[in-house]
Each structure stands twice: as C-alpha cells, then as structure tokens.
Amino acid sequence: MKGLLPAVLVLLAAAPAVHWSHAQPMTVVMVDDRFQPDHLTFERGTQYLLRLENHGKDLHEFTAPEFFAAAVMRDPGQLANGGQEVVVQPGGSADIYLEPLKAGTYHLTCADHDWDGMVGEIVVR
Questions:
Q1: 40 is in which domain, residue-wise?
Q2: Under 8 Å CB-to-CB from 97, ≥6 apart: which residues?
Q3: This model's pTM is above 0.85
Q4: pLDDT in the model for residue 45
Q5: Does residue 116 lie in a domain region?
Q6: What is the CATH number for 57?
Q7: Which ranges in 15-122 belong to alpha helices (H)?
Q8: Is residue 86 part of a domain?
Q9: Domain count, the chain
Q10: Dihedral sign for Cα atoms in the order 5, 33, 114, 99
Q11: 110 falls within a domain
C-alpha cells in the first residue's frame, strides 16, 4: 500500500481545477455492521459530495484505498491511515468532496467490522 500516496499526488498534480460547488450529493449511512447502501456507483469525471453518516454505536471506517487513490479530493487530509480510509465517530458524519478519475470496481470495507459483513462495492463508470 506504500505506492498509493504517490499515485494520489500524481493524480492531484495532473487534474484540472475542480468546481466543487456543482458536486452531486451521495449519502452512505454506516450502522452496526453494514453500509447503506453497500453498492455505490459513480461517474468518472463527475464531482461528488460523499456524506458519510455513522448511525451506529461503534466507530466505523469507510476503507477504500484503491478508490481514493484513483480520485481527486478537495481535502486529502480527511483521509486516515495513509490515505486509505475515512474514520467516522458514533453519531458523527464526514463530508468528502471527490472526483473519481479512473473507471473500475473497488472494494469497500469497514476495517474494524469487515469480519461481520460490513463490506461493499464501489463502481466507477
């Protein structure tokens, strides 16, 4: 996973200016122990406001390192664990502005609860 951060920096350097005011909203609710919805579809080159809401009693992570590495983010500092995930406290939320740049299918997990089925899929068309 060491190579993901340089890939993010290359994508950021190569990306044109993004107008985040036109971002399409998408909400994912995190509960104990699943994502709702657990299958997300994005369009390459479209800006999104990904709102992560933790309605559970446990801390949850939105872990998708390959997806984040293939996207431009308005604030990459929101990513934890070396750019792999967004951590959301119980009852909390996080707004992530991003633009997927590479089509593909990406794995989504909660790093602490994948063993209990808190997994999903992200498709970028």
A1: 26-124
A2: 20, 23, 47, 48, 49, 50, 73, 74, 75
A3: no
A4: 92
A5: yes
A6: 2.60.40.420
A7: 65-69
A8: yes
A9: 1
A10: negative
A11: yes
